[in-house]
Amino acid sequence: LLLLLCCCSNMSCHDDWLGYLVSVFVNESLTHSQECCPGCHDGKNSPLLHAHHQSGLLEKLTMFHSLVKDNMLKNMKSLLEDYISRFPNANQYDDVDQKTLKSYGRDFLNQSSPRFIYYSHYLTPAVDALLDSTPPTHIKPLTLNELLKKYPKSNNQQKKKLKSNK
User: DSSP states of 69-106 as a string?
Assistant: First the structure.
């Protein structure tokens, strides 16, 4: 993927696109950590009783990686449309360029890992300034147990953690 991106004539556009995807990925993971939080569902007041306050960003990215990645891949067209509306450049987004960006986006997500998303440098302050919000990918909220059942392989560490907390 890196070699493929280095061959592009317009590296900035592709870096902005990947930064946009990182931003959406992170925001979706944070949203799901709140939606799956037992403390939020039970109306607890103290942050000590909220799972989404107890876990760090990398842990949230790990927990929701499969779910968020799958939904972003399904919604690639709407994500690209939102990206184009935020980063307008009429000369860059003809049909071929849109297909190229979709392809890079799919490759990026398919090859991503939670650590790569966390440590990548695609989300720059300049890209972040244009992203006051990102579009939700409309994932049905899941409880932590439903999430573990749906994505058992990617969440083995989380399952062990839940069992040790009981």
Answer: HHHHHHTHHHHHHHHHHHS--TTT-SHHHHHHHHHHHH
What 8-state DSSP symbol labels residue 34? H
pLDDT of residue 87: 80
Find tokens 């939670």 and name the residue: 114
C-alpha closest to that of 18 among 112, 132, 91, 154: 112
CB 104 within 8 A of CB 5: yes
pTM of the model: 0.71
- State pLDDT tens for residues 20-36: 999 999 989 888 887 77
Residue 67 has pLDDT above 70, yes or no: yes
Rounded CA separation 6/14 (Å): 10
Compute CA distances 102 → 48, 70, 72, 124, whole Å.
41, 14, 11, 20
Q: What are the structure tokens assigned to 150, written together?
A: 């749906």
Phi, then psi, of 93 in degrees rounded to 5? -115, 45
| Residues 91-111 pLDDT 10s | 667 788 889 999 999 999 999
